[in-house]
Design goal:
By secondary structure, the protein is α+β, with helices and mostly antiparallel strands. The chain is built from 27 helices and 17 strands. Helix 6 packs antiparallel against helix 20, helix 14 runs antiparallel to helix 15 and helix 18 runs parallel beside helix 19. The mean pLDDT is 92.
Length: 614
């Protein structure tokens, strides 16, 4: 895991590498080649040899690479091409470079892992950049008036520019709607995110963006297999994915929540390890409802791990500016705070950990997938009936202490009078258009990314369709975004075996009736793990890895609300109508509606303005 940067114009001494030092504290270097400058911050995980430092030149000196991430099949690829190349290192970086030299842009089909990289060809004056299929590793870029800059983090791009780009006010609307700014946008007008599964080519003063991988190409590919064959193949794929991600020249362990996904990772790690696995669990001092430490302890004893329990009592007021600093744009999912604290504390013991993120999207674990099943059964009921129900349920109070049942029921009923894409958009969003018209002084229509992705998928199966939508939007923009930003803030690497592209492709090809069967979410994964995990872990209700935000708003964050969302602050900022903010604060604290994440997203936005705009 590292930080990379490159630009195609002269720039006097700058601090761009220092700004990304946290991404790679082990070595930093920059080189000029033609009119390009390439820079790299290294977090050394595999092959500590100085020859593996970057930027790395090919032996012929015609090519140079900067690379962030891990390619887990690099030893296999090395063996395939070693007769044609003299390898100087054991690093995956050199394998990527030589694979590109041999296969050109088609090299991307061969890589198994998480990556963003740039390779420059001196003869062709061609820059080739790429991002992994699922979007685990970030790559942002600026291209305007012939100037090209790419980097792992926006802050490095801002440092290179002579002046700060304008804020994209559509991105602010999208942020408050989704709690993140969706790709390809960033919060700045002229800075973009390269989407997952895409490459960027710069040559002759122009850039071209190409998609090299599309999950939709794999729909139906596994439907010839019966259930037993599917489970056998899934067992092989997960075992291969986990075992390859256990290769490291530093201390490695596993994040263990006590849920099904992290327990799956632990089972396969134990199977592939000759010594006890190191496990790390996060718990809360005064929020037992959100705590899974007892289940994690049970699993630790079951597999005989070296278990580390990390109990936190975070100072949210001091964490907020750190979080905003590492995202470079507003990001409203407060689970990011937990990942920051977990990786910060785990760094005392290890440098790499495997995690179960992506299991819900791949195997069918979210409550909204159940809701789609319910929708299918009730879709022919008159919409007028749901409009009538909506008028009654709006008075039901919502809990802000972790129980989301009432809120989900209300959202389901309120959205049933809409078409499918609008309905799903409602389920995964926060501030609605109606609310934002009340919130903003000057509301303008904005792009509904999730709805657009939904409408562009022609497949009729709603469970599979929603899974693909989530893999294209929620997973890279939300979960993987905070996974990278918060772990890298602590110079820590997190690996995600369940979203290996082979597993994603295979599961996309499986009949979605096996994702949720007989109202049993994650049916295939549970069937696979029967007799491999304790029964109570397989059948436990989903909790989710969330902070006690409702509780924090009444305690730790009370002073922040008084400062950041005061009438004086809101009026000075000039974006919002204070009366609506006052209304949602009252709704939340009187228990009428759970507005925890709406309030938090506004606090984060104000902090971002203070750091990046004021």
């Amino acid at each position: 895991m590292c930080g990379i940067i490159g630009f195609n114009f002269f720039k006097e001494q700058s601090s761009y590498l220092n700004l990304m030092h946290h991404r790679g504290p082990d070595f930093s270097e920059s080189f000029k080649i033609d009119n390009f400058t390439f820079g790299h911050n290294r977090l050394s995980i595999v092959d500590h040899n100085d020859e593996s430092n970057q930027p790395m030149f090919s032996i012929c000196r015609n090519y140079v690479i900067v690379f962030n991430g891990e390619v887990y099949n690099h030893n296999e690829l090395r063996n395939q091409i070693k007769s044609e190349f003299n390898f100087r290192t054991n690093s995956d970086t050199e394998v990527i470079l030589n694979t590109y030299i041999k296969f050109g842009e088609k090299c991307l089909d061969k890589f198994q892992g998480m990556f963003s990289f740039a390779i420059y060809d001196k003869k062709l004056k061609k820059l080739f950049c790429a991002r992994d299929r699922i979007g685990i590793k970030p790559l942002n870029y600026y291209f305007k008036d012939g100037k090209l800059i790419f980097a792992s983090e926006t802050k490095a791009i801002l440092d290179i520019l002579d002046s700060k780009p304008k804020i994209d006010y559509q991105a602010i609307l999208q942020y408050l709607h989704y709690l993140y700014v969706p790709e390809p946008n960033t919060i700045f007008e002229d800075i973009k995110k390269l989407p997952p599964g895409h490459s960027l080519v710069y040559q002759n003063g122009e850039i071209k963006i190409n998609r090299y991988w599309n999950i939709e190409n794999y729909i139906g590919n596994s439907q010839h297999l019966n259930e037993i064959e599917i489970i056998e193949e899934l067992d092989k794929l997960i075992n291969d994915s986990v075992s390859k991600r256990m290769i490291a020249d530093v201390e490695l362990g596993s994040f263990l929540s006590g849920g099904l996904d992290s327990s799956t990772i632990l089972y396969y790690m134990s199977k592939n390890s000759s010594k006890p696995v190191n496990t790390y669990t996060l718990g809360f001092k005064d929020a037992k409802k959100y705590d899974e430490t007892e289940d994690a302890k049970l699993l630790s004893e079951y597999f005989g791990t070296n278990h580390n329990e990390i109990i936190i009592e975070p100072n949210i007021t001091s964490l907020l500016p750190k979080m905003v600093k590492h995202f470079d744009e507003p990001f409203g999912n407060p689970t990011s705070l937990l990942i920051h604290e977990l990786t910060k504390e785990t760094k005392k013991f290890a440098t790499v950990a495997l995690a179960g993120d992506g299991g819900d999207e791949i195997f069918g674990g979210y409550p909204r997938y159940e809701a789609l099943n319910l929708y299918s059964k009730t879709k022919y009921l008159p919409k007028q009936l749901f409009k009538l129900l909506s008028s009654f349920i709006k008075f039901l109070p919502e809990s802000s202490s972790g129980n989301h049942q009432i809120r989900r029921i209300k959202t389901f009923i309120n959205s049933r009078s809409k078409n499918e894409s609008e309905m799903y958009e409602d389920w995964i969003s926060y501030f609605s258009d109606k609310e934002m018209k009340l919130l903003f002084k000057n509301f303008q229509p904005y792009k509904k990314t999730v709805q657009e992705v939904w409408d562009n998928i022609s497949h009729k199966d709603l469970i599979l369709k929603s899974s693909i939508v989530d893999i294209k939007t929620f997973l890279p923009n939300n979960l993987l975004h905070y996974g990278d930003a918060m772990s890298m803030a602590n110079s820590f690497e997190v690996r995600f075996p369940l979203i290996d592209h082979h597993i994603v492709e295979f599961m996309t090809g499986v009949d979605s009736n096996l994702r949720i069967k007989n109202n049993n979410k994650k049916y295939l994964l549970k069937k696979l793990l029967k007799n491999k995990l304790p029964e109570q872990i397989i059948n436990k209700p989903k909790l989710g890895f969330n902070p006690p935000m409702g509780q924090w708003l009444k305690t730790d964050l009370k002073n922040l609300i008084n400062e950041y969302l005061s009438q004086k602050t809101v009026q000075k900022r000039g974006l919002f109508n204070y009366r609506f903010i006052e209304d949602i604060l009252k709704e939340n604290f009187k228990g009428r509606r759970d507005r925890s994440l709406h309030i938090w997203s506004l606090i984060v936005l104000e902090e971002w303005f203070r750091q990046y705009y004021d």
